[in-house]
Amino acid sequence: MNTSIDTRRLRCSIGWLGMLLPWLVVLITWSWPGSISITYYSYLATGTFMVILGSAGMLLMNYKGYTKVDDIINTITGIAGLLICAFPMAYKVAGEYIDTGVLGLPSNISGIFHNISAFLFFGLLSFNSLFLFTKSSGEMTKNKKIRNIIFRVCGIGMLASFLILLIPSSVLENKTWVTEMFALTFFGISWLTKANCYPWLFCDPKLK
Questions:
Q1: Pairing assessment for the beta strands 99-100 and 96-97 based on DSSP bridges
Q2: Mean pLDDT of 190-199
Q3: HSE value, Cβ hemisphere, 13 Å, CA-based, for 48
Q4: Domain residue limits, the chain
């Protein structure tokens, strides 16, 4: 029995999960949340947040790249994704931080681990797109050169998305959600491009 993993399908799954997450929480809560992470505390969206981000984390941990460095980077990225779920953001009820997460920590403490994990998650995703996806084991095709441009745009875009956080809340109330949406969109496009399945993303069909 063949138990090998279809890496193209795995890359597609990771990409689509990332891109869909911000929009699914909007559809489920029927609102524009302040952030994706805050929907952890929403009865309707808790499962969506946990399942999608948790699944993406597990897929990243099980993704096998071309080198040991790829494996290590993606494993750490996946672990960071799971830690974002395990340690929810800070949240107050009646002016008091509630206990939350897998360890039942006060949410202000949990929020510290949450922010560190999120920083690591997006930082490594950007590194992946900028420096790992752009590598080639042979002669670069014309499409590969175009894909490398997409990878670099996505890697820079993920980091640049966080500049949105500098906008005053009075101007953009849901700026954290908007930041996450753009960052996850760049993340998703990068992985869908890496999947090398879609002609509109300049795939080379014979490559795996």
A1: unpaired
A2: 91
A3: 20
A4: 7-201
